[in-house]
Each structure stands twice: as C-alpha cells, then as structure tokens.
Design goal:
Blueprint lengths: L2 H10 L3 E6 L2 E5 L6 E4 L6 H11 L3
Antiparallel strand pairs: 1-2, 2-3
Length: 58
C-alpha cells in the first residue's frame, strides 16, 4: 500500500499527525491508541493492515 493512501485513511478516520521522529510518523486520536507509520513510499500490506487494525479502521 502506498504511504499516502494509508495517511488519507487515517486522516479520514480523525487521526492527526502528532510528530515525525526520523523513521516514523506518530498519529493520535482522542480515545484511541497512537499509531506509528513508517516513512517509506511503499508500506508492506501486512504492516498497513496492522496499523489500520490498531487504529480501529478495520
């Protein structure tokens, strides 16, 4: 999955970027766990699915 598509889905669900520390961006939403998104153009499908599951999107 392209990183930009993953970020669109997180933002559509109400997540906002809290900080960008080197290799990962941290997204937060009140009442939910923070999720880390790697700073790569392409993100492995399993990793993207795990991020979306943690975010409560899947």
């Amino acid at each position: 999955m392209k990183r930009i598509e993953l970020l669109r889905r997180l933002r559509a669900a109400g997540y906002v970027e809290d900080r960008n520390d080197g290799g990962h961006a941290i997204f937060e939403k009140d009442g939910f766990r923070a999720v880390q998104v790697p700073n790569h153009k392409e993100i492995n499908e399993n990793t993207a699915r795990a991020i979306l599951k943690t975010a409560g999107i899947l």
